[in-house]
Amino acid sequence: MTAETAVESPDRTARGTADAAQRRAGRLRLPAPALVAAGAVTVGLGAWADQWYLPFAVGLAAGVLTGRHRPGRLRTAALLVLLGPVPWGALLVVRALSGDTITATARTTAGLAGLPASATVTIALTLLVALLQSASGSWFGRALLRCFAWDK
Amino acid sequence: MASKVSRAVHLVCSATVALAVLLLLGAGYGPVPALGKALVPGGGVWASASADTTVRSENLTLPDLDKPVKVSFTAEGYASVEAQTDHDLFLAQGYLTARLRFTQLDLQRRLGQGRLSELVGAAGLKSDKFELSLGLLRTARARWAATPPSSGAGQALTAYASGVNSWMSHLEKTGQWPTIYGLTGVRPRAWTPTDTLVVQGVLTQQMNFNTIPLDYDLLQRSLGPKLTKDWFPLQAPTPQRPYDTGPYPNLPPAPLTVHNANAADPAGTSASSARHTVSPTPAGEDVALPDTVRQLDFNSNAWAANGPRVAGGGAMLAGDPHLQTTLPSYWFQISLRSPGYQVAGGSIPGVPGVLVGHNEHISWSLTNAQTVATLYYREKLSSGRPDSYYWNGAWRPMRKAHYTIPVRGGSTVGLTTDLTVHGPMMTVLGQRVSVDWMGDFAHNDLDALLSANRAHDFTSFREALRGWKAPALNFVYADDKGHIGTLLVGDVPQTPKGSQPWLPLSGTGDEDVIGTTPYQALPHVYDPPSHLVASTNQRPAGSDYPYFLGTSMNFDPGYRQSVIEKFHTDRGALRPEDYTALQNDVTDELAVRLVPALLAALDGTELTGQQRAARGLLATWNHSMDANSPAASVWWTFLDSYLHEVFQPWWDAKKVPASKDRWILDLDRLPTPLREMLQHWTLDDPDNAAFTPPNAAHRDAGQVMRTAFRAAVAELSHKLGARPSAWAWAKLHTRQIPSITGAPGLGYGPYADGGNPWTVNAAGGRLNSSYGPSFRLVVRWTGPGASESLAIYPGGQSDTPATPWYDNLVPLWREKKYLPLPPPHGRADPTAIWSLRAGE
Q1: What's the mean pLDDT in B427-439?
Q2: What's the structural domain count of chain B?
Q3: Which of A132, A136, A152 is the best substitution to test chain B (most B C-beta atoms within 10 A)?
Q4: Is the torsion defined by CA of B204, B207, B210, B212 positive or negative?
Q5: What is the full per-residue pLDDT of chain A (152 aa) written as tens digits?
Q6: Cα–Cα distance for residue pair B318/B458, rounded to 1 Å
Q7: Residue B45: its chain A contacts at CB < 8 A?
């Protein structure tokens, strides 16, 4: 005797399986650390070469890459920091260690900008600019992916 | 479907945000610079961080040098230049000044050219409109056009510009622009000789552009002609202390030899040559000399003594010109040595040569003469004849000068200035007038200065300065043969007899300037029997001097003069340390005169315990405005209260428009003429009607003083506590040395200090002073060609806050310490040497 079994369409079955797998598995892995490092190095080298927009560009790429896998807010935030403020901050540290007057220049900049003449203000603003770029780039990248890749 | 809509919304939102972020960071918005470009760690503001701002020994190549040049520095930054040609000397001076003070150079020329807005945005517009209207740039161009390239000044200007541009080339190659350029993204243009002349014009306008005739007009309209004449007289009734006591020659005015670069040409202003007129120029917004460059308190000192007054004989000179104290300073210390020059002292960044200092044989310093230099004309206009004015019997078209002002982060602003034969039409203190300013004439003052740098005795010095026209200055002189002197140089305009140049004049032609005081008739003195010459911005000649010099609003009352003269009388032969002590003296001569009268007025009056204590402080006071003196606080607060008690009722009743010109009409600034009148009435006319307010019961000086004293004690008690002995002047009075950028945090102070606006160590302004001894110099001649000289100023040789030389001299200046001036004919002990040679 053969029992009748309700059979769904193969596509719906596959999608449902994948979604369920995601929900069961929870957070998926970040893109490979090598990719993150490559992104950070790109941003850092770009900053050295006076290319201010690279945190946005790399953030956009990261947004596309992570848009499908959805790593979660905390990991996303960490990623954006690694791709924006960290390389910019690291470059400032390297320059300071090599003898450049980073702190004094930061203080002067803050004063000239009408802000409290504190080095912390300018350095914080610098890191914020990088973060703003990586974040907005990432958001745009994800939105692009969801809009165009999803429809395929 | 809902999912598609959601994705589309996210895309649009994220794209919008991304675009906004990129635009904001890449192009900026309004006054906010492009922060992405400005803050990227490899460029922007950070580019200057890799600049080597520490001065160390180097071998450098500069194009345009003829022969090797040596530039050496002391540990504190005092610089010496040794060159084998005069051309190389000024080229090196330009390079050195640019390397240490580039931002200051650029800011000063932008200020004078009306291009501040290009760098700082809309905040600079008011200043730019003023400068373009007044015409420093037009004047500078006219001066350069009139300077023969082969002349001393022409060659110096060209070489200096070349030196500045050598440093600019380095900045362009390395990208290590100073921070302000990294922040704004603006790049300066190459330096030209016109730029130097603009910078010179900036200092000129600060020293002698004023609105005195318009202030008199406002006073006449409010107080009335009689009170204005009585309270702001042409000649103050108090004893003046001129350095030239006469007799005076009475010669015809000397004709003007060059034209006003900011006036329509009289020969070209006939009705037949009327140009096509555009729509009527609107009344124009009120323009005023920006407070940042306005000299608010005139209190320079310069004196010299010889013979028995100087230990060992010979002559000794002391000078401390008072300007706004800023970081960087207006001054840059330098010693210059070449075949044609051996001179050391204070230079003005942007200008070749030395302005105060000494050479191998002579020394000099200067004070602002404060003689009349700005005249205002009410043009006869007609609504039926737009853009025309009536002059010498005919209607004339106004000449128009058009400008466009670039504004960082904003739209370009257009400006049209109308010019008449008298000068530019401007709206000043609410009045539409044309401005005839002596600084607008295309004279060659630089040539005169360079000639003075090379003079060797009083005759050659005086002859060299014949060509100095603006600002009018008092030069004080001492030389290696033991001679001393003082002379006024510069154009002092004269108008026809019967005219009143202290008020706005008629523009129809009958009150035009007819000439200037002839050079040989200008006040001067040489080797007086008193063995002392001194200038402290006082009226330089007596009341019988036959030329108009100015009114009581122009000149200092002579309090500092009295202190300086008494110092010389009370002591024997003096040494340099005596002069440094005198430069730091804070005796208030007005207090010397008035405190006894106050104490007498308080005699027999019922006083509270607190008031008795305050009175006791005054009774035992040495009249010195020391920082730790409580009596100084009592005196100052009393004087402020006394002046307000007398004049405020009149100001209120007559509606004197103090807000129109806070710096001359505001009682809070204790206007000089009113202080003098108060002194005069208190001592000589205690029943003067001024003590009785309008429609009030009669009062005399004693009554008002008692009222003011009680009010002062109450005020101090409220501010500083109940114990008068704790009312140290330092709790009220501070000094500050702000950054020229206006950036708080990049200046010095404020810090508690002594002095007031009329002590020798002056602290101009109100209770927080940023005007004072901007440079101090003492030169003692010990024999032919032999001198010892000391100098200090509150600042540092560099304008970069990150360097040790930004403000390293301030503590020394505060502690009344001086540094030896590197001699022009020898070497100091250098800690760094630049060896410059020709090359790319």
Answers
A1: 94
A2: 1
A3: A136
A4: negative
A5: 444 444 445 444 444 454 555 454 445 455 578 889 999 999 999 999 999 999 999 999 999 988 777 778 888 899 999 999 999 999 999 999 999 999 999 999 999 998 998 999 999 999 999 999 999 999 999 999 888 775 54
A6: 17
A7: 105-106, 108-109, 122
B631-651 pLDDT, tens digit each: 999 999 999 999 999 999 999
Contact A52 B8 (CB under 8 A): no
Q: Give the nearest partner residue to B745 out of A47, A53, A116, using CB atoms.
A: A116
In tens, the pLDDT along B713-745 reads 999 999 999 999 999 999 999 999 999 998 988
For residue A121, is it within any domain?
yes
Tokens of B167: 């440093």
Q: Is B42 on the interface with A (CB under 8 A)?
A: yes
In a domain, A119, yes or no: yes
Domain carrying residue B639: 589-623+628-732
Rounded to an integer, what distance in angstroms lies between the CA atom of residue B667 and that of residue B678? 13
Residue B390 neighbours by CB under 8 Å, 6+ apart: B379, B380, B381, B382, B396, B507, B508
User: What is the complex's ipTM, to 2 decimals?
Assistant: 0.86
Q: What's the residue count for chain A?
A: 152
Establish if B9 touches chain A: CB-CB under 8 angstroms.
no
HSE at residue B127, side-chain half, CA atoms within 13 A, is 26
B40 Cβ neighbours under 8 A, 6+ residues apart: A47, A50, A51, A52, A88, B46
> Which residue ranges of B are tagged as binding site for Ca(2+)?
501
Say if A10 falls within a structural domain: no
CA within 13 Å, CB half, A113: 25
Query: From the candidates B127, B166, B222, B300, which is the catalytic residue?
Result: B300
Hey, what long-range contacts does B461-464 have (CB within 8 A, 24 or more apart)?
B461/B362, B461/B364, B462/B487, B462/B524
- Is A44 domain-assigned? yes
The verdict on a CB contact (< 8 Å) between A112 and B44 is no
Q: How many Å lie between the alpha carbon of A88 and the closest alpha carbon of chain B? A: 6
Which of helix, strand or coil describes residue B260?
strand
SS3 B691: helix
Numbers of helices and strands, H then E, in chain B: 22, 33
B300 is catalytic: yes
Q: Which among B340, B283, B345, B291 is positioned nearest to B319, based on CA atoms?
A: B345
**Which of B25, B37, B748 to probe the A interface (max A CBs under 10 A)?**
B25
Q: In terms of residue numbers, what domain contains A127?
A: 32-149
Which DSSP category does B660 fall into? G
Strands (DSSP E) found in B351-509 = 356-359, 362-368, 374-378, 380-382, 385-391, 394-397, 399-405, 413-419, 425-428, 431-437, 473-479, 484-489, 493-494, 505-506
- Search chain A and give the residue with CA nearest B20: A136
Q: Alpha-carbon distance A59 to A137, whole Å?
A: 5
Residue B286 dihedral angles phi and psi, to the nearest 5°: -65, 130
Q: At B711, which CATH number? A: 1.10.1400
Is residue B639 situated within a structural domain? yes
How distant, in Å, are the alpha carbons of B536, B643, B680 from that of B237? 18, 17, 7
- All residues of chain B having their beta carbon less than 8 Å from the beta carbon of residue A110 are 745
Q: What is the CA radius of gyration of chain B?
A: 28
Q: What is the distance between the alpha carbons of residues B631 and B629, in angstroms, rounded to a whole number? A: 5
Q: Is B548 helix (H, G, I), strand (E, B) or coil?
A: coil
Computed over its alpha carbons, how large is the radius of gyration of chain A? Answer: 22
The residue among B485, B443, B433, B493 whose CA lies nearest residue B461 is B485
How many structural domains is chain A composed of? 1
B50 → closest Cβ in A56, A100, A116: A100
